[in-house]
Amino acid sequence: MSKRIGILTSGGDCPGLNAIIRAVVKCASQKGWEVYGIPYGTDGFLRLEDGKCHSQDFELKANCYELPGLLHGIDILQFLSGSILGSLSKGDPGDRAIAQTIIKGYQDLKLDALIAVGGDGSIDIIYDLAQQGQWNIVAIPKTIDNDVPFTERSVGFDTALDKVTSALYDLTFTAASHDRTMIVEVMGRDAGHLALASGIAGGADVILIPELISKIDEDLITDLCIRIAKLRQSGRKFSLIVIAEGVKNQTGERQKAISDYLAQQIDRVSHQLCLTDKPEFCDLDKIETRSLILGHIQRSGTPSSYDRLLAATFAKKAVDLIADEKYNQLVVWQNGTVQIESLDEVVSYIKQRHQLGICPSPVDPNGLLVQTARSLGIYLGV
Questions:
Q1: Backbone angles phi and psi of 57, in degrees to 5
Q2: I need a surface site. Which of 86, 253, 258, 332 has the fewest CB within 10 A?
Q3: Hey, how many other C-beta atoms are within 10 angstroms of the C-beta on 104?
Q4: C-alpha triplet 268, 197, 88: angle, nearest 5°
Q5: What is the share, in percent, of the chain residues with pLDDT greater than 90?
Q6: Would 373 be classed as within a structural domain?
Q7: DSSP secondary structure code for residue 206 in this structure
Q8: Radius of gyration of the chain, Cα coordinates, nearest whole angstrom
């Protein structure tokens, strides 16, 4: 039976979103369905109701390579970063007027179902809208933070991991050339998956993530400086530190540019230790500390082959669920294959964790990667 489905991307962008859009369109077109891309997340429904665009503007064609220029049929969509639909985090269902307008936009498009691509926050919001509007939805997880619960991987994480690891490789050589301590701040406001995985893969000496340290206190800074001193004594005159942006400062508060703050604290304490005249600390006054925030470059670049494969398999599963009229599901990756989880259970869990101020899917303090880092001699602050 022919269906009319929509797809939107919401929240922060990441590599692989266009690969999901492409795969959804291709899979749905094989079934003879119509696919409508909602621009700028749920904001697209508002634009439709405000008369800023029309329903025919939303239709996506089977030949995803029909873009301007002399491409001669080259299908480039799966290689593009960002989202051709745009990605915003608007449409809070707590505002009843906005929610009702969004719901009306969905109804006016006469959609049979909606595929929502988002992180934990976006999925939470769109789920509430779907409940109010009685939408048929299927969700696909995406985030470079990899903190959507019930899935081992989200689209975008693998590419971001490669991007950060590559940066650490490059920074290692400039740090070694100048005998510097290089501090690299990566994204991860609530979860340290990206910092931990990239730190291991990139050869970091120190990895600091919010799941393992409550704040950057005096004891941690002292231990860190002692660690740097031991590295210098062993012949490694430079060091590489990876820190997640969600790590808190000495007062237990979030701080913008936490890497700069850490650099200042290392300089202060290292000089204090040097003044003790203990031989093992005599070299600390020669330390030059530099900090670098990788920022939004972590969200950029050509999606990795793994992210493109994940995007394709997630999209295929989402379309199959709609064909079977099995809605209100989150497509997930578990035990090496695509599975599904009830959105009722997923969102209930997300809301519960958010109310407690806890990340829905944090790094396991006793997990394999933490154990691996420790076995490699990487300092984790605990």
A1: -70, -20
A2: 253
A3: 15
A4: 95
A5: 70
A6: no
A7: E
A8: 23
231 lies in the same domain as 176: yes
Residues 104, 80 share a domain: yes
> In what helix (H) or strand (E) does residue 36 lie, and over which residues does it extend?
strand 34-37
Residue type (1 letter), 92: D
How many structural domains comprise the chain? 2
pLDDT at 42 over 80: yes
Please give the model's pTM, rounded to 2 decimal places: 0.92
Helix, strand, coil content of the chain in percent (nearest 5): 45, 15, 40
Residue 53 lies in a domain: yes
Q: Are residues 183 and 291 in the same domain?
A: yes
Tell me: do 242 and 308 sit in the same domain. Answer: no
Residue 68 tokens read as 């301007």
Residue 376, domain member (yes or no): no
Q: How many C-beta atoms lie closer than 10 Å to residue 256's C-beta?
A: 9
CATH code, domain carrying 337? 3.40.50.450
Q: Which of these, 178, 189, 218, 136, lies nearest to 298 by C-alpha position?
A: 189
145 catalytically annotated:
yes
Instruction: Pick the catalytic residue from 124, 145, 147, 158.
Output: 145
Domain that holds residue 194: 161-300
pLDDT of 89 over the 70 cut: no
Is 280 part of any domain? yes
One domain for residues 55 and 73:
yes
The pLDDT tens digits of the residues spanning 95-150 come to 788 889 999 999 999 999 999 999 999 999 999 999 999 999 999 999 999 999 99
Q: What is the DSSP string of 125-138?
A: HHHHHHHHHT--EE
